[in-house]
Structure formats: structure tokens, C-alpha cells
Write a structure and sequence with these properties.
Helix content is 36%, strand content 20%. It is an alpha+beta fold and 676 residues long. Helix 1 packs antiparallel against helix 2 and helix 16 packs across helix 17. The relative contact order is 0.06. The structure holds a DNA duplex (14 and 10 nucleotides).
DNA sequence: TTACCTCGAGCTCA
DNA sequence: CTCGAGGTAA
């Protein structure tokens, strides 16, 4: 046997034993025998580095660090599921399914554990793990392949021949026992312990050095399919898919069940909930999917996610703590928000010390008083909530919180608009809190993106005597105060230069970012983009009238009048003048250079050969068209490349014209294809 | 909202 | 070594 053959044999054999261990929980050999094989393989690879492969088990201990993670665009978006709390919402889900399918028989559901970890997309090409990526915003995540290779249970090579591309999805998580040992070790080395297994797992996947990821001993369970090159034609339901994934070498939990009808489903959910603490890892609910793929297809998707699945979340964990006080926070628009200051309490895996009380109507409705023992919970999402007071523990002398009559920061009398619950500080120009929020928004990442001007620095510069920052234009005056900046703590030559450079660089941000940065009410980054495209220039925008504004697609009467109001205010005109005087010249958006696609909405799906998708979309927009993300009846046509998935199905279903990339290119004269 | 990782740069002490 | 900022995840 040549070293090459021997190495290949060892690799297959080691992976087979890994699968027996991690997938089937039925090892055939002991740890020491496994070690012997592993070390022999390692020795061969060390001696003949050219024999080392990416799917070799030796890669599981990690490789040299990468410098950063590359963005990874998902071929099929990783959507999120709707949540359901309690039996009622589960029944409502079932009703909706039956209604949409127009059937009266019991639906077959597949129910699986909802792991408390982080989701991963694993792409295999010809059976070998090619890419492991995080979910990100669902459209694109990060390529963490080297880290993924160290996760036990993620097969580096599939157990069966499988030609073509395959994307499997699942969850990376840390077992409770691993978490405890890891923390014991960390404490022994006087390192900071992790707060919960989820964070330890999530942090592990964020390591640039995959050897450190390997030390976290992470696990993986598969739960679904992103994309398959047609390899799964024989598989017609989710449960069968899970079994097939298992035969391919993916760990799949045994708890997965098929439940016929909502009553069986609710029984199962209750069982899982009851026994969840006995599981070796954390879960936060049960994922329920309509089992049959044909029915799934029929149900389709909403804008948010699949209509055929729901995430049942366990009731939020609750804890008792003391309400130490109520802070009144003043936001960018002057709205005063009461925030509960809580005695820190560990609930739902984190320490909660603050929670919004939204408004005083809520405070009164809940009848919480300072000094009360209150119930706090962290519901399915991430926002902690004060549920209410524990009345038995109330001090009889406690007083109902007083609704502030003046701004806690600038002491201007607060106003309450007709029909609104919110209290507002009307001193938009002089209130330090509002100014600080406006500054933060203006320099923020989606606006002018001035690096080095964070919350702390803004606060610091505003509180100097005399203040360096007083309003938005004063940002551009910082360069005249180099000495003062240098005299501040932790501001050396380099920091000051970097800050001033970043401020200079922000002067030519695109118009849409600039408009967003102004913080006009109702104008988020989307609307700012619409405005920039419609009016083309700052002057154009400043001259906009209500009548013109309501004509902008996606801008309604409310937004239009907010913008009109903003434009009419003298102080805002002065603000723009001051910024222009300071040298701010927003870059005007590229106007459509043609009208080839005027009025058309184009959707790209699948992989494009000659174009990057963004470039193709930019081309459509330059030619006066709109590039949309999803197919609807308003779509003019769909350009489908290889690997097109649900969007293609949707297009066929709606009878929308579909063309190939080549056909699309034929529509575009050579000259117009150039991408600047 | 909280927790984690990474980076650049300033600060501190040898 | 420590801090602040920036990014990401749920």
C-alpha cells in the first residue's frame, strides 16, 4: 500500500468512526484505537504534505489563523421562522395551514428540537465540505469554513457518493458538560468564564484561529436543506429528509417526531418542554414544519418566511428583582422613554439590569413603583421586559411614579400631542440629550459613517468646557481644535489624525446616507434612498413640496408631511447651509443613464456567470429599472442562473417571464454593460 | 439588550 | 495591559 492509499484509507476509516460516534452514538472502537489511526494519518501527512486534503480529519484540530472572515452570499436565503407562544398560537398556526390548503383533515407535522446555538450553512461539492457559513442577515453571512471543519459532527466528507452541490443547514452548539468543563478550566487559568453555552459556541465560531475553535469542542445537528442539485428526488417529506441526512453522516436528533394533527403535536411539545432540562444541551423551543414537501410548496412563503413552519417558543424564563428606579431617557426626536433600572438579575442566560417601560401609560397600567419587587422576563426575542409588580411584597408607603412634566435633561416643559401617548421635549435645538442622539445618528454606520466618533467620545466632547461639539455642523469644526483634542486622555497624535481624517472623508458620502443622517422623522435608510434617487441632488430635495413628495413610490401622506414640515423649519435650512459651508458635498446618485428597463422590475436568481449579482442589479437600475429581491405579480421578468431555487418556482407559478443570463445580456447593447 | 471577538492605540512599567 | 469602537449573534 502506498502512503497515498494508506492515508486515503485512514481518512475514510476515521470519518466512519466519527460518524459512528457522533451520529449513531455507537462507537465500534475505543478512543485509544482511534488515536492510533489519527496519529498515523497525521504522521503520513506531515511527511508528505502534498497528501494532506481539506477533508482530512487532521484538519479538525484547526489550522493557522485567517486574517478576517469573508462575506458569503447564501445561494438560498436563510429565512427566519414566525414564533408561536402557547397552545393557542400553535392552534392558530394549524388553522391557518388548513385554511390556506383548504382542507379539513388533520395535517401531518414534523416536530424537532429548536437548538439554542447558532445556525450554519454547510455547502458540499461532490461530497466534500466546501464552505461553512454563518446565517448573517439571511442573505449573506460570513465564511467560517476553517472553524466549521473543527466542529465535531460536521462531516468533512459525506458517507455516500453524492455528485454536485448540496447545502445542509443545522445548528452549532455547545453541550452543557463541555461548557462546565471549559469554564472550570478558564477560571483555573484566571480567565473570564462564559455566561452561557450559546455565547461560548457563538464566540468559538468567531475565532480567527480555528485551533481555538477546536478547543471549544463544539457540536452540530442538522435540521434542513438549503439547496440540492436534485439528489433528493426520492425524498418527499421533512422526516425522511432527516433520516437521509443521517445516512449521509449528519448528526440528527432522535427526538424528531411526526405528529398527525394538532393535538398530537401539542402533546409532543409539552413532553419536550417537560424533559428539556434532561437534554445534554440547551433548547428554546420546538420547530414545527408541515411534513410533506408538496404541501410545503403549496403553502409557499410570506415576505417574512415560510408559511409551512413555525418556531414554538417555550414560555419566557422569569425572575424576580428590585426596581431601583425609573430613568427618563430623551431620544433623538425628543420622546421621553421611561427605562427601568433593575437590580441585576440573571434571567434567560444573561444578566438584565435595564428594561424599557415604553411610556407612562404602560407604567401606570402595570402599576410598577420604585422599590417594588418585579417580575422580569426575556421573551422569545432579546428584549427584556418588566412583567409587573409582586404585590404581596409591596411597601404600603410606595408611591405611584410621577410623570415628568419637564425634560429630565434640559428642563423644558414636556408636551403630549393629541392622541399620542408619548411625552416629548420640544427643545429640539437646545436639549443636550437630543443633540447627542442626533450626532450619534449622523455619524452612525448607515449614515455618514465617521469612524472613531462613538457614543463615549461624543459625550466627552459635548461636556468639555467650552464644548467642542454643540450641533451637527460643529463636527466639521473639530479640525480647528487639534490641540484641545491632543490634550485629552487617550487621544494621541494617531488617534486625533485618524478621527480628523475620518471626518474629512465623510464630507462626500452619498446623498442617501446624508439624508438618512439628518434624522428626519419617518425617513429611514430605505426612504432616504428613495428620496435621493427621486430628487437626485440636495438642492432638488430641499425644494421638494408635499405634492411632489407623495408621488414618490413608497412615500405616503404621513411621511410626506413629516418631510415637508422638516423642510419648512428655518433651523433645518440653516443646518444644511452650515454643512455646505463646512464643505460637505454629498455625492449625487447616479442617474439612470438610459431607459432600457424603465418601469420594469427585474429579479435575479441563481448564480450568474458573467456578472456579479450586484453589478447586474446596478445595470438594471442605471437603465431606469428596479431590481427586486423576490418575485411577485409585479415582476417584469426573472433572470435565472444555474442553481435557481424557489424564486424560479414562484415565477413559473405566477406565469412571470423567465430568461437565462445570456438572453438577458442580449437585451443589453455591448456599450451599456460596462460596470464603472 | 447583552455578550463575545477583534482591532488600533494609548498607557504603564520593566 | 486597558480602553473604546466596531462588528456579529440571538
Amino acid at each position: 500500500m502506498t502512503p497515498n492509499e494508506r492515508a486515503a484509507w485512514l481518512r475514510t476509516e476515521i470519518e466512519r468512526h466519527n460518524v459512528l460516534y457522533y451520529v449513531h452514538d455507537a462507537p465500534e472502537i475505543g478512543d485509544s484505537e482511534w488515536d492510533v489511526m489519527f496519529h498515523e494519518l497525521k504522521a503520513i501527512e506531515d511527511e508528505h504534505p502534498e497528501l494532506r486534503t481539506q477533508d482530512s480529519p487532521t484538519q479538525r484540530v484547526g489550522v493557522a489563523p485567517v486574517s478576517k472572515f469573508e462575506p458569503y452570499r447564501h445561494g438560498v436565503p436563510m429565512l427566519s421562522l414566525d414564533n408561536a407562544f402557547g397552545e393557542d398560537e400553535l392552534r392558530a398556526f394549524d388553522e391557518r395551514i388548513k385554511r390556506v390548503l383548504a382542507i379539513d383533515v388533520e395535517v401531518e407535522y414534523e416536530a424537532e428540537l429548536k437548538f439554542d446555538g447558532l445556525s450554519m450553512s454547510l455547502t458540499y461539492v461532490d461530497g466534500v465540505l466546501q464552505v461553512g457559513a454563518t446565517r448573517g442577515d439571511g442573505i449573506s453571512g460570513e465564511d467560517v469554513t476553517t472553524n466549521a471543519r473543527t466542529v465535531r459532527g460536521i462531516p468533512l466528507r459525506l458517507q455516500r457518493e453524492m455528485l454536485g452541490k448540496l447545502e445542509v443547514r443545522g445548528e452549532v452548539l455547545m453541550f452543557k458538560t463541555v461548557f462546565e468543563t471549559l469554564n472550570r478550566d478558564r477560571v483555573a487559568r484566571s480567565e473570564q468564564a462564559f455566561v452561557n453555552p450559546r455565547n461560548a459556541a457563538s464566540g468559538g465560531m468567531r475565532q480567527l484561529d480555528s485551533r481555538l475553535t477546536a478547543e471549544r469542542k463544539l457540536n452540530f445537528f442538522a435540521y434542513g436543506l438549503g439547496f440540492a442539485d436534485g439528489q433528493f428526488r426520492e425524498v418527499h417529506d421533512q422526516f425522511a429528509l432527516m433520516q437521509t441526512l443521517r445516512t449521509l453522516g449528519f448528526p440528527v436528533r432522535e427526538e424528531t417526531r411526526v405528529c398527525v394533527g394538532i393535538d398530537r403535536l401539542i402533546e409532543f411539545v409539552a413532553n419536550v418542554q417537560q424533559s428539556r432540562s434532561r437534554l445534554p444541551f440547551g433548547i428554546d423551543g420546538v420547530v414545527i414544519k408541515v411534513n410533506n414537501f408538496d404541501l410545503q410548496k403549496e403553502l409557499g412563503f410570506t415576505a417574512r418566511g415560510p408559511r409551512w413552519a413555525v418556531a414554538y417558543k417555550f414560555p419566557a424564563e422569569q425572575a424576580f428583582t428590585i426596581l431601583n428606579g425609573i430613568e427618563n431617557q430623551v431620544g433623538r426626536t425628543g420622546v421621553v422613554t421611561p427605562v427601568a433600572e433593575l437590580e441585576p438579575v440573571f434571567v434567560g442566560g444573561v444578566t438584565v439590569s435595564r428594561a424599557t417601560l415604553h411610556n407612562y401609560q404602560e407604567v401606570l397600567r402595570k402599576d410598577v413603583r420604585v422599590g417594588d419587587t418585579v417580575t422580569v422576563q426575556r421573551a422569545g426575542d432579546v428584549i427584556p421586559e418588566v412583567v409587573g409588580p409582586v404585590l404581596e411584597k409591596r411597601n404600603p408607603d410606595s408611591k405611584v411614579p410621577r410623570i415628568p412634566s419637564v425634560c429630565p435633561v434640559c428642563e423644558t416643559p414636556l408636551i403630549q400631542q393629541e392622541g399620542m401617548v408619548a411625552l416629548r421635549c420640544p427643545n429640539s435645538k437646545g436639549c443636550a440629550a437630543q443633540i447627542q442622539c442626533k450626532l450619534q445618528h449622523f455619524v452612525g454606520r448607515n449614515a455618514m459613517d465617521i469612524e472613531g466618533l462613538g457614543e463615549k467620545q461624543i459625550e466627552r466632547y459635548m461636556n468639555l468646557n467650552p464644548p467642542l461639539l454643540t450641533d451637527i455642523p460643529s463636527i466639521y469644526g473639530l479640525k480647528d481644535h487639534r490641540e484641545i483634542l491632543l490634550s485629552l486622555e487617550r487621544m494621541g497624535e494617531q488617534s486625533v489624525t485618524n478621527l480628523l481624517d475620518a471626518i474629512e472623508a465623510s464630507k462626500n458620502r452619498p446623498l442617501d446616507r446624508f439624508l438618512f443622517g439628518l434624522g428626519i422623522r419617518q425617513v429611514g435608510d430605505r426612504t432616504a434612498g428613495d428620496l435621493a434617487r427621486t430628487f437626485g441632488s440636495l438642492d432638488g430635495f430641499m425644494a421638494a413640496t408635499y405634492d411632489r413628495l407623495v408621488l414618490v413610490p413608497d412615500i405616503g401622506p404621513t411621511t410626506a408631511s413629516e418631510i415637508e414640515e422638516w423642510l419648512e423649519l428655518e433651523e433645518n435650512k440653516k443646518l444644511i447651509d452650515a454643512l455646505l459651508k463646512a464643505g460637505v458635498v454629498p455625492t449625487e446618485p447616479e442617474l439612470p443613464s438610459g431607459n432600457l428597463f424603465a418601469g420594469q422590475t427585474v429579479v435575479f436568481t441563481g448564480k450568474l456567470e458573467k456578472f456579479k449579482r450586484e453589478d447586474a442589479e446596478a445595470l438594471v437600475m442605471r437603465q431606469g429599472g428596479k431590481a427586486a429581491g423576490s418575485v411577485s405579480k409585479n415582476t417584469s421578468f426573472v433572470v435565472a442562473g444555474p442553481g435557481a431555487g424557489s424564486k424560479l418556482d414562484k415565477a413559473t407559478q405566477l406565469g412571470v417571464q423567465v430568461m437565462t443570463e445570456a438572453e438577458f445580456l442580449d437585451m443589453v447593447p455591448e456599450l451599456m454593460r460596462n460596470v464603472e
